[in-house]
Amino acid sequence: MDFPFLLSTMKSLLAATPTTLGLFSLSIFFGGLLALLIVTMRVSNNIVARNFAKGYIFVFRGSPLLIQMFLVFYGLGQFGVIRHSIVWPALREPFVCAVLSLALCTGGYSAEIFRSGLRAVPPGEIEAARAAGMSGFLLLRRIIAPIAFRHALPAYSTEIVLMVKSTALASLVTVWEITGVAQRLISQTYRTMEVFMCAAALYLILNFLILQVLALIEHRLNRHNLRPAERKPSVMSAFFGARP
Amino acid sequence: MEIIDLLGFGDKGWGVLILTGMALTLCVTLASLAIGAVIGAIVAAAKLSDRWWSRMLGTAYTTVFRGVPELLIIYLIYFGGSSAVTAIGQAIGIEGFLGMPSFLAGALAVGLISGAYQAEVYRGAYRAIPVGEIEAAASIGMPPLRSLRRIILPQILRFAIPGLNNVWQLSLKDSALISVTGLAELMRTTQVAAGSTRQYFLFYIVGGVLYLVLTSFSERVFNSAERKSNKSMPRGMGQV
Q1: For the CA atoms of A55, A58, A62, A64, what is the dihedral angle to 10 degrees?
Q2: What are the residue ranges spanned by the domains of chain B?
Q3: pTM, whole model, 2 decimals?
Q4: A 180-219 residues with CB below 8 A of B?
Q5: Domains of chain A and any CATH numbers
Q6: Which residue from A171, A207, A244 is facing B67, i.e. has the nearest CB?
């Protein structure tokens, strides 16, 4: 074991961690907003909106993220309309392109997760709320959204972990985040195993911390219907699952 | 017209190359599914074992290969494998750098990831088999191996189909990342076509559509397999 090398590797990877975290948090934020919009369209009564949402989900869940990212990064710049518009200074930046495509992609996946949460809201609760005189936004805010979010949270945690992993693709459009820096170190030193171990450890720690926070939120939200034996949040059981 | 020339099968057309790339994507994903099935079965057995160290090793495997970015694992296998191959080459007297075959590296890397997900699928499927059936097999005197072959494996395969569908879709999309090793699969061919004709938008759209064809077609195959395997079973919840 060459500890000085491991230490210097870890140092350069840690320097790239803020980029990874920035990609992750911005894409989760914008992707979450987008997912709310898509899921609203998906469950609406308007046939055009519903079919648009279905198509969106099909396209973004069915094709690889890498091709979506390249489409945004290389494809959009091809059009003079976009190159001469006011958004071009932003779209020229690899970081913005990466966030945009990550958000578009997670929007599709999250919309499906939120929809499964909506379907778990018991009709009786909505009827009861209507009987008590709630409707519209008040009904959504007080009854539907909290129940749906609680049901969707376990699957959403999985999606969030997958997003942490997906930020690695940003290195292919020249954003220097952890995987990109690791790849550069590997091709410079050819000490694959050491660099891999450092980067892998960093990602596992990130995922572990994020899952801890999510498990805490889940525990908080479910506090009212926990049986005494289940009071302890279990991170390991919720540790990474396949996309639904 | 220009578009038809570019995508067609003539001298200037990229049609043949792109369709070949699509076939290669399918091949490399099938290979990784097979590698993943072997690894998945072993890891699932390890996680279901009574020995704590074996359970721990299984959990460590699934945690690492599901928690680390796919791209990083592909780099590990490709560059790590290449330096191993170079070292072997030097030992038998071949000088210079030797690359690992990118098909092998890609299939192995995606297979290792797929194995971690498949392990969870098989473990869940095993859990779904009623204990009574295994006990019944033992009580009529079936030795463990025969009970595995006759009672356990057929049921695991049936319960695993929906989960395997998910894993397959995931691997199909992960296979696009193998393009970084230079393997001329669908993603790489699209990239080369886009770069050399400067028609980025057109070719990435075509590539994306072909991936959609692959994913929706395989979804159908899995759904019909699920229907077939459940033919003799009573209808329950969530069946297709």
Answers
A1: 50
A2: 2-229
A3: 0.87
A4: 182-183, 186-187, 190, 192-193, 196, 199-200, 203-204, 207
A5: 3-238 (1.10.3720.10)
A6: A207
